[in-house]
C-alpha cells in the first residue's frame, strides 16, 4: 500500500539559470530576468549538489525554485516539476486541495497565501483547459 503524503504547494518564482560563474570560494548563478545569487563553498557536499542542479537547469532549460538568505546567498535550489491540474476544491475554511493528473499525493495551498488569487486562477485554468503548469512542492508529513 502506498502511504499518503501531505504536501504543501509553494508559490515561489521559478527561474531559469542563464549563466554560472565559478570562482575560488563562490559560484555566482545568474538567472533570466537579471536576478543572481551565489553558492558558497563552506559546505562542499551541499555546494556540489546545488551547483549540479544549476547546471541541469541551464542545460535542460527547466526552471528551479530558489530560496535565498541574506542578500544573495542561495540556500536551496530544487528543480521544478510540470503537470496538469485535475481538480481544485475547498478542503476547509483555510485550505485549498489540489490534485494533479500525474502526481498521487494530495496537495494543499493555504488560503492566507499572499498570492492566492493568482495561483488559484492558474491552477483552475490548467484544470479547465488541461494545460500544464510548473510547480514546486514540499512534503510536510507522510503516513503509512
What does this structure look like?
By secondary structure, this protein is α+β, with helices and mostly antiparallel strands. It has two domains: 4-10 and 81-143, OB fold (Dihydrolipoamide Acetyltransferase, E2P) (Beta Barrel); 14-79, OB fold (Dihydrolipoamide Acetyltransferase, E2P) (Beta Barrel), CATH 2.40.50.340. It is 22% helix and 50% strand. It contains two helices and twelve strands; from the N terminus they run βββββαβββββαββ. The chain has helices at 44-60, 116-129; strands at residues 4-9, 14-15, 17-22, 26-31, 36-40, 64-69, 73-79, 81-92, 95-100, 106-110, 132-135, 137-143. The protein has a six-stranded mixed sheet with strand order 11-8-9-10-1-12. β9 and β10 (106-110) form a beta hairpin. It is elongated, with a radius of gyration of 17 Å.
CATH topology of the largest domain: OB fold (Dihydrolipoamide Acetyltransferase, E2P)
Could you estimate the helical fraction of the residues in percent? 10-25%
* CATH architecture tag of the largest domain: Beta Barrel
* Shape, per Cα inertia axes: elongated
| Radius of gyration, in angstroms, nearest whole number | 17 Å
Report the sheet-strand fraction. Answer: over 45%
Number of strands: 12
Poorly predicted runs of 5 or more residues: 1-11
How many structural domains can be distinguished in the coordinates? 2
Provide the spatial order of strands within the biggest beta sheet: 11-8-9-10-1-12
Tell me the span between the first and last alpha carbons: 8 Å
User: How do the SSEs run, as a string of H and E?
Assistant: EEEEEHEEEEEHEE
Amino acid at each position: 500500500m502506498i502511504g499518503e503524503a501531505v504536501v504543501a504547494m509553494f508559490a515561489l518564482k521559478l527561474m531559469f539559470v542563464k549563466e554560472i560563474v565559478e570562482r575560488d570560494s563562490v559560484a555566482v548563478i545568474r538567472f533570466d530576468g537579471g536576478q543572481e545569487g551565489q553558492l558558497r563553498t563552506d559546505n562542499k557536499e551541499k555546494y556540489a549538489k546545488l551547483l549540479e542542479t544549476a547546471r541541469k537547469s541551464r542545460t535542460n532549460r527547466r526552471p528551479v525554485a530558489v530560496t535565498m538568505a541574506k542578500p544573495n546567498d542561495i540556500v536551496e535550489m530544487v528543480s521544478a516539476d510540470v503537470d496538469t491540474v485535475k481538480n481544485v476544491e475547498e478542503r476547509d475554511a483555510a485550505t485549498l486541495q489540489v490534485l494533479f493528473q500525474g502526481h498521487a499525493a494530495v496537495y494543499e495551498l493555504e488560503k492566507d497565501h499572499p498570492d492566492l488569487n493568482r495561483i488559484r486562477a492558474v491552477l483552475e485554468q490548467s484544470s479547465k483547459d488541461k494545460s500544464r503548469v510548473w510547480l514546486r512542492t514540499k512534503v510536510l508529513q507522510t503516513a503509512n
